[in-house]
Design brief:
Blueprint (H helix, E strand, L loop, with lengths): L1 H34 L5 E3 L5 E4 L1 H7 L10 H15 L1
Antiparallel strand pairs: 1-2
Length: 86
């Protein structure tokens, strides 16, 4: 019985370590992407914008990714802006 408890504790600690490492990695990547001087955004498989850096915000005249509905709608708006300027 003690062996099972020890294994469960080890699994829990390994899981906590993994979660912390994953969080640290995601934070690091986020900082890198935010520091890009080029506009950058990331979309999910269902075209929902998941990440948006400051330059993309500036270029597309949007305050935050929270205000976006879907990447497809926003890309349509962006393409219309580009076409209207040419």
């Amino acid at each position: 019985m003690d062996n099972i408890k020890e294994l469960q504790q080890t699994d829990w600690e390994n899981n906590q370590n993994y979660r912390q490492m994953l969080f640290d990695y995601q934070l690091r990547i986020s900082h890198i992407l935010k520091s890009f001087t080029d506009g950058y955004f990331e979309v999910s498989a269902d075209w929902i914008i998941k990440f948006w850096n400051k330059e993309a915000e500036r270029l597309l005249l949007k305050e935050s990714v929270r205000h976006l509905k879907t990447a497809a709608e926003e890309l349509d708006v962006l393409l219309r802006k580009i076409v209207s300027k040419t």
